[in-house]
Amino acid sequence: MAELEGEELGLREILKHLDRESAHFVVRVESVPSSRKVTVVEPHELIRDSLDLPRLLHQMKERLGTGGSVENGRMILHGDHREQVRAELVKFGVAAENIELI
What we know:
The chain is α+β, with helices and mostly antiparallel strands. It is built from 3 helices and 7 strands; from the N terminus they run ββαββαββαβ.
C-alpha cells in the first residue's frame, strides 16, 4: 500500500488520487440573486463520481473561512475565492494546469 500525507491508501483510494491528478476543474465567479458573489467549483463530469465533493468542500470552507454547499455536482463557496481555490485544489493533488479560472 502507498502512503499519502500519513494516510494509508487502498487500491480504490490510489485510483481516486490518480483521477485527481488528471482531473479538470472549472472555477468561476457567479452572482446570485441577492447581488452576492459565489465561487463555483465544477469538476469535469468524468471524474465527478470519483471525488468526495462534500469532504473537499468541508476542507475548502475551513481553509478559506467561508460557507458553501454542494449543488448539482459542483461546489458553491460564498465570496470570490478563485485564486485560493486553485491553491487548495493543487494541495489536494490536482495539477495546476488542469484548473481553469474564469
